[in-house]
Amino acid sequence: MSEARVATAPADRRSRSAGLAVSALGLLLVLFLLSTFVGVADLRPADLLHEATRGEALELIATSRIPRSLALVLAGSSLAVSGLIMQLLTRNPFVEPSTVGTMEFAGLGLLLSALLVPGAPVIVRMGFGAVCALIGTALFLAVISRIEVSDILVVPLVGIMLAGIVAAVSTFIAYRAELIQSMTAWTTGDFSVVIEGRYEILWVTAVLTGIALLVADRLTVAGMGEEIATNLGLDHRRALALGMTIVSIVAAAVVVTAGMLPFVGLVVPNLIALLIGSNARRAIPWVALTGAALVLLCDILARTVRYPYELPIGTILGVVGGIAFVTMLLAGTRRVG
Predict the structure, then answer these.
(1) Could you say which of 26, 91, 100, 303 is the most buried, measured as most Cβ atoms within 10 Å of its Cβ?
(2) Alpha-carbon gap, residue 137 to 142, rounded angstroms
(3) What is the 3-state secondary structure (H, E, C) of the chain?
(4) Predicted structure pTM score
(5) Are 188 and 259 in contact (CB under 8 A)?
(6) Closest Cα to residue 99, out of 136, 45, 58?
């Protein structure tokens, strides 16, 4: 009997995993449908059944609701995976694009593109943002590599200070160039302006998420440290550069499309790590799925809390993520003490 139980244990675990995956996908589908039908414009499923209202309803869904919901899924999943990558490479659970200055540097890149090449297409602006985000992430890694860190809480605090400096510089430049209004649009996460033709750049983030899954084992090994990774035959610098590039392009694509979305890459990877561990290959699909669900849920709340008015999703994410961040910091402080 004991041998039989041992033999059936792996099958039971696979069955539970499959059940959880189906449940998670079902929840994501429900949130996607809610996101499609919730909004200022009145849209009900019954409108699709009546000939008098079907045409207008289909046009609204095709041009606004579906693009917005897809943008939410793409942004949420890619930012969550970016947070996981940063946490692996820095070996710190408190870092993500919005706590190390990556998004602020991406915003600075968009500001520079508006100054140097006004009227440039989205892909050019995203290129400026990606390059600046890559420089900013490299700067952050260089700073923390040159200071003696005895507490993991120091690393995100350094990142937040760097982000504050970059944000202040960007604000000064925008003020002098009379671009404060444009800068506000980049720094406030908001999907209300996302329609067909204004979100497609986010499909790049889906490709990058797929690449992250393909190189997941390398990222996991790189997260063990340079010495161990080198002993295992991995080029640590190349893996680090690849991870930084993925994170930088994702941050730039999200900022140029919808603005900054804070704390997605902080909350989701830590939650998944508690449930299934931090092995990248196993965690990335769950992180992407949960990140998409979190952003969809927060956007639905942003559209319903003060209906028919709409709050920026960045505000909702800031509240939810801020509470989670402080809770993690306090828990970390108690463990250190």
Answers:
(1) 100
(2) 9
(3) CHHHHHHHHHHHHHHHHHHHHHHHHHHHHHHHHHHHHCCCCCCCHHHHCCHHHHHHHHHHHHHHHHHHHHHHHHHHHHHHHHHHHHHHHHCCCCCCCCCCCHHHHHHHHHHHHHHHCCCCCHHHHHHHHHHHHHHHHHHHHHHHHCCCCCCCCHHHHHHHHHHHHHHHHHHHHHHHCCCHHHHHHHHCCCCCCCCCCCCHHHHHHHHHHHHHHHCHHHHHHHCCCHHHHHHCCCCHHHHHHHHHHHHHHHHHHHHHHHCCCCCHHHHHHHHHHHHHCCCHHHHHHHHHHHHHHHHHHHHHHHHHCCCCCCCCHHHHHHHHHHHHHHHHHHHHHHHHC
(4) 0.88
(5) yes
(6) 136
What are 272's two structure tokens?
Answer: 């998944």
Cα torsion 87, 90, 93, 98: sign: negative
CA–CA gap between residue 158 and residue 327 (Å, rounded) = 19
Which amino acid, residue 232? L
How far apart are the C-alpha atoms of 82 and 103, rounded to whole Å? 11
Q: What is the pLDDT along the chain (337 residues), one digit of tens a residue?
A: 445 444 455 555 556 556 667 777 888 899 998 888 887 777 777 777 777 777 787 888 888 889 999 999 999 999 999 999 999 988 888 888 988 889 999 999 999 999 999 888 888 999 999 999 999 999 998 888 887 766 677 888 888 889 999 999 999 999 998 888 878 877 888 887 888 888 889 999 999 999 999 999 898 888 888 888 888 888 888 988 899 999 999 999 999 888 888 889 988 998 888 888 778 888 899 999 999 999 999 999 988 888 778 888 888 988 888 888 777 767 654 444 4
For residues 84 and 243, the answer to whether their CB atoms sit within 8 Å is no
The domain over range 63-336 is classified in CATH as 1.10.3470.10 = yes
